[in-house]
Amino acid sequence: MKNTLAYKPKNVWGTLSAAQRKELDALSTRYIDFLSSCKTERETVAYVCERLVRAGYSEDFKKKSIFRSLRGKCVFAARRGKNTLSKGLALIAAHADTPRLDFKQRPLIEQPGVAQAKTHYYGGIRKYQWLARPLALHGIIVREDGKKLPVTLGENPGEPVFCIADLLPHLAQKQGTQTINEAFEGEKLNLILAHSPAPEAKNKHTNGEIKEPVKQHLLSLLHKKYGIHEEDLITAELQAVPAGAARFVGMDQSLVGGYGQDDRICVFTALEALLNAKSGPQNIAVIFWDREETGSDGATGAASRFFQYCVEDMTRCWMHGASVSQVFLATRALSADVQGAIDPDFQELHEKQNAAQLGHGPCFAKFTGSRGKYGASEADAEFFASLRGLLNAKGIPWQSAELGKVDTGGGGTVALFLAAYGMQVIDLGPALLSMHSPFELASCADLWATLAAYRAFFE
Ligand code: MN
Ligand code: MN
């Protein structure tokens, strides 16, 4: 007998029609292209703005479809519905920044045999995952005269990549007895950029006339390629990220593997939802922030006033005289961020009944935070129930989870910054394996179901 009283999350794969399966494959392929070309917050925001412009979005807030970006690192976009703005927005918020290795301000050093860039990691990384693997350079160099030089090096087959060397096992005896934090020091994340000495140093080097011949060679190559001097690096934003394209994973091509899926999978699906949602009563909006991985501080992070300014200007243009606080209070928001899926090899760290399962659809997190729900907002039962009803009505699988066992896991998202405006907000996003690693894994089924859920929310 079918038990209709008990609850069980649905596996998305089992619910798909043949047509949906086709949609899922096409979506996954487009998502892989997006992930492969957008590896920094700047690249992601540029991609979003380009898609918005192509879809007719304007920076003139008097129009019906509008957007605004700040410093090329965060972006707000909205489309007017039939409802008055005082009924609030349906808002999806995600973040475009990802853990990575930033160049230090004075990065270049020469050590025996190599010239390297010193780095300072950004966000939560497991340092050993960045060793002995090809890395690419992404970012910009800005010259004194204001000229911007974009840098993308190490992605095309003809280009070199860069690398942080790892210790050979023969010399890693002591490392084996240390804790991970002792064994892998942030100060040793030095990226190899060059190895051969400047040709003109051939004789002078042995005479000690050129002090750092490999660094000199590197500087001359940088000067040739970008016209820059060492001082230009001080003000540059250069990030080392995993080189290469995202890929399908598995014989059945059921997973996507790639860097930066936290949280670009939500940026991608939220943008698709915004651009493809049928027009209806709701005023719909997205905001994609930067700085989430370091706590959301800064001008382009969720703790800044940028989002508020956008809503104030939008209210002035769309509904002059309306109360902005009313717009905020009436807004319903999804904090679109990823969840940690049950790791098949570390199941003991999850409380499985309240953990996310790969392939079971986007995952609600009623609250985030840690250790007694500290450092988080919490969605109210009324809002959560209304969203559950919406997804059930559309037959979209969903699940509910916390990150790890009580007092074991935890994490934060941008939800609390939206909740501060008094709006209703809950976290909803797909679950990942290997989150924050250079090669995160997402289920294609979850990608598809997340887009379906975001679209349902907008429509
Ligand atoms: Mn995230
Ligand atoms: Mn994260």
List the helices and strands and how they pair.
Blueprint: H1 18-37, H2 41-54, E1 65-70, E2 74-79, E3 89-95, E4 100-111, E5 114-122, E6 135-142, E7 148-153, H3 180-183, E8 190-194, H4 201-206, H5 213-226, H6 230-234, E9 237-242, E10 247-249, E11 255-258, H7 261-276, E12 283-289, H8 306-318, H9 324-330, E13 332-335, E14 339-340, E15 363-365, H10 381-393, E16 399-400, H11 415-419, E17 424-429, E18 431-433, E19 440-443, H12 444-458
Parallel strand pairs: 3-12, 3-13, 13-17, 14-18, 15-16
Antiparallel strand pairs: 1-2, 2-12, 4-5, 4-9, 5-8, 6-7, 6-9, 10-11, 11-19, 15-17, 18-19
Residues 262, 293, 436 line the site of one manganese (II) ion.
Structure description:
The chain is an alpha+beta fold and 459 residues long. It folds into two domains: 12-98 and 259-458, Zn peptidases (Aminopeptidase), CATH 3.40.630; 100-242, Roll (Aminopeptidase i, Domain 2), CATH 2.30.250.10. The chain is built from twelve helices and 19 strands. The chain has helices at residues 18-37, 41-54, 180-183, 201-206, 213-226, 230-234, 261-276, 306-318, 324-330, 381-393, 415-419, 444-458, and strands at 65-70, 74-79, 89-95, 100-111, 114-122, 135-142, 148-153, 190-194, 237-242, 247-249, 255-258, 283-289, 332-335, 339-340, 363-365, 399-400, 424-429, 431-433, 440-443. The strands form three sheets. Strands 1-2-12-3-13-17-15-16 form an eight-stranded mixed β-sheet, with helices on both faces. The longest helix has 20 residues, at 18-37. The chain is globular, with a radius of gyration of 24 Å. 42% of the residues are buried. The model has no long low-confidence stretch (mean pLDDT 95). Bound molecules: manganese (II) ion (2 copies).
